[in-house]
Structures are given as structure tokens and as C-alpha cells.
Specification:
Length: about 400
């Protein structure tokens, strides 16, 4: 979320909007600098050498600029993550009466983000002030040198005033250019990080797509751990053949969901291998086309019931209504009920109805493999018995 909100907005304002302005000012500086050689080449060289000195200021504090901006973006990202957690745990906050403590933590996190922003802003303003002072000092030195050339009789007073007017046209654009360069230097690491972030999901691959499972899925001495010191799965072996029904049992935290996530390629195994029809899953581009997963947490979009079930596919009403009758969703089976609007995350439905809708959508997809990660928890017996009868 932070990538697509604060960081993307910062890149837009400090990079994409700055580039056209950078070239506009640079072209003006080049044009005026070349024109200065017409009155006198000595004044032109003095002006270019002295008035361009502010452009080196951003380079001198490059690391500090980049660090200040990186610290600010990191603080915003952490703050946003905390806010998302607090919003998700709203009921827990009310239940334990810790609203005051959470507000205090929010104030601390928000204040930290604003402090980092203030530091970034102050550093930029300080650099701009130093740039401006150097520019004005350089401008004064250019005036003195130009006046000296006039007094020596090597330059006319009329040409002097023409040259001063042109030099004046250079002073402020060079100050502005230094500020733009400062912004571009500071945002460079963020741009590189954003490019890497985007390329992770868009880069081409030579891996083959998995359309369907023909024979079996095999876990062969699979080991995996989220941290290097403690593996969650160790030497786990399991084979599921097509047409079979399998139940993985174990205590909470033993790695049941992790085993599913490894099959879906959320993570790569640290030992052993997982194969589908004898081919390692690492050689597949994705396994989603052949698998449907229903989790314990029901996830619904703010859209019609029809679209939540079909995922915007074209399904006949007869099939849709027949499907709704099976998992205890009879009240939605009559038209126009499938076009009922489901509010954000199914807020206008009961917990059981949300789980039934997710289950019905999974049945509608009809893939080679259906994985149920405890989606039937807290549902009545009728639905559970019915779904076992449907070969789930």
C-alpha cells in the first residue's frame, strides 16, 4: 500500500513532474550562455564558471538527501502497516478497551512520520538556502569582474548593461536547476526500488504454465522455515493422486497452511522438492490455473453476488441458481437475488453466508485440484455433510 500511495506520489512529484521542468530550464541556460559570448567571451566564461557552482551543492550532500527521504518513506510504510492492523483488529481493540492506548501509539507513529518528513524538508530547504547564497555571491563576483573589464576600456558600458541583463536571466534558472537536481538525486533510490518492485510481477519468464494436474502431486522430503534457525516443515513427504480425497491433520502451527502455500509458490522450499506430474513446481510459471483454494477467512468484493461467485465470468443463470441451492444459500437462489449487492467485505452478510458464498464460487470454478484450508469451520453440519457428499 505504501508503494502505491506515498512512494508513488513522491516519485510523481519529485521525478516525473521535475523532468520536463529540468529540460526547459536547461535549454534556457544553454541558450543564454551561448548568447553571452556575443558581447564578450571573457564575461561569458566567468559567468558560466561562477554561476554554475550552486549545481554542485546537491552532489555534496547526496547521501544525506537520499537517507532523509528513505527514512521518511520507511516511517510512512510502517505507519500505514500499523493503521491497517488496527483497522482490521477494531473489534479486539473495543473488546479489550485499549482504544486509548492505540490512539497513543497512533500519535507516536504519526508524529515519527511527520518528524522524518520535517527533517527531509528542512534538509532540502537548507540546501536551497546555501544554493541561493552561493548563487548571489557568484553573481556579485561576476558583476565586479565585468565592471573591471569595462573600467579597463576593453568593454563598452552599453555592452556591459546588455551582458548584465543576460546574466540576470541566468541567475534564477540556475538556482531553480540546482533545486531540481537535488530532488532528482534524492528520489533516485526510490525510483530504482519502484522499478524493481514493478518488474517482479511483469518480467517475462520461460517457465511453462500449469493448466491441469493429470496424475499426482508429490512432496518429497520437503523442508521449509520462515527463519533460518527453525524449520517449520522438515522432511515432509506426501503424495496426492488425481481423483483422491486427502486430509492433512496436525496441531496449530505445525505447517499445514505453509505446505499449501509452498504448492502455490508463495515461497520456495529450502530442502527437498514438490513435483506435479513429475515436474518440479519451480519449473511452472504459476499453479493457479489448475487449483482453487478456499481459506478459513472469507474474502468478498464490494460487488454483486453474481460477480463474487463467477469472478466476472459468463455463467448461465440456471447453473448459478442451481449452485446456490447446495451450500445453504437458498434465499439467494431466486432471481434477481444473484444480483444482490454485497457491501465491503460482505458486511451485510452473516459469517456463515460469506463462507458459503466463497465455497460456492470455488465449486463453480471446477479446477483439477480443490484445496480447502479449514473453510468449513463454524458452519452447520448440513453444509459439511453436503460438501463431503459432493466429493470435496
Amino acid at each position: 500500500m505504501a508503494k502505491y500511495t506515498s512512494e508513488a506520489d513522491l516519485i510523481k512529484s519529485r521525478y516525473f513532474q521535475m523532468l520536463p521542468l529540468f529540460w526547459e530550464i536547461l535549454l534556457k541556460i544553454i541558450f543564454v550562455s551561448l548568447a553571452l559570448f556575443i558581447p564578450d567571451w571573457r564575461i561569458a566564461l566567468i559567468t558560466i564558471l561562477l554561476l554554475t557552482t550552486p549545481l554542485y551543492v546537491p552532489r555534496l550532500i547526496e547521501k544525506r538527501l537520499q537517507k532523509a527521504q528513505a527514512d521518511y518513506l520507511k516511517a510512512v510504510e510502517e505507519n500505514l502497516a500499523k493503521v491497517n492492523d488496527w483497522l482490521s483488529g477494531f473489534e479486539i481493540i473495543r473488546n479489550f478497551s485499549i482504544g486509548r492506548q492505540i490512539l497513543m501509539r497512533f500519535d507516536e507513529s504519526n508524529t515519527l512520520s511527520m518528524d522524518k518528513l520535517l527533517r527531509d524538508t528542512v534538509l532540502g530547504a537548507t540546501a536551497q538556502l546555501i544554493t541561493t547564497l552561493i548563487s548571489y555571491l557568484s553573481y556579485f563576483i561576476v558583476l565586479v569582474c565585468s565592471a573591471g573589464i569595462v573600467l579597463s576600456g576593453k568593454f563598452s558600458a552599453g555592452s556591459f548593461f546588455v551582458a548584465i541583463g543576460m546574466i540576470d536571466q541566468l541567475s534564477w534558472p540556475l538556482i531553480s536547476l540546482a533545486g531540481i537536481i537535488r530532488e532528482l538525486i534524492a528520489i533516485r533510490p526510490s525510483c530504482a526500488a519502484m522499478e524493481e518492485f514493478v518488474s517482479q510481477s511483469s518480467e517475462s519468464t520461460d517457465r511453462k504454465p500449469l493448466i491441469r494436474v493429470e496424475k499426482e502431486i508429490c512432496y518429497d522430503n520437503v523442508s521449509f522455515g520462515y527463519t533460518g534457525d527453525r524449520p517449520l516443515l522438515q522432511n515432509f513427504s506426501f503424495t496426492a493422486e488425481m481423483g483422491g480425497k486427502y486430509l492433512i491433520r496436525g496441531a496449530s502451527g505445525c505447517g499445514k497452511t505453509t505446505a499449501v502455500n509452498l504448492l502455490l509458490r508463495y515461497y520456495d522450499v529450502t530442502g527437498g522438492r514438490i513435483t506435479i506430474d513429475g515436474v518440479p513446481v519451480s519449473e511452472y510459471d504459476t499453479t493457479y490455473a489448475a487449483m482453487t483454494v478456499v481459506r478459513q477467512e472469507a474474502v468478498l468484493f464490494h460487488d454483486t453476488l453474481r460477480n463474487n461467485l463467477t469472478m466476472y465470468g459468463d455463467v448461465e443463470d440456471v447453473r448459478l441458481i442451481e449452485l446456490l441451492k447446495h451450500p445453504g444459500l437458498d434465499r439467494f437462489a431466486d432471481l434477481p437475488s444473484p444480483d444482490t449487492i454485497i457491501t465491503e467485505n460482505g458486511a451485510n452478510l452473516s459469517g456463515g453466508e460469506k463462507k458459503r458464498i466463497c465455497l460456492a464460487g470455488a465449486l463453480l470454478r471446477d479446477t483439477s485440484v480443490l484445496i480447502l484450508d479449514e473453510p468449513l469451520a463454524n458452519l452447520d453440519e448440513r453444509v459439511i455433510v453436503l460438501e463431503h457428499a459432493k466429493n470435496i
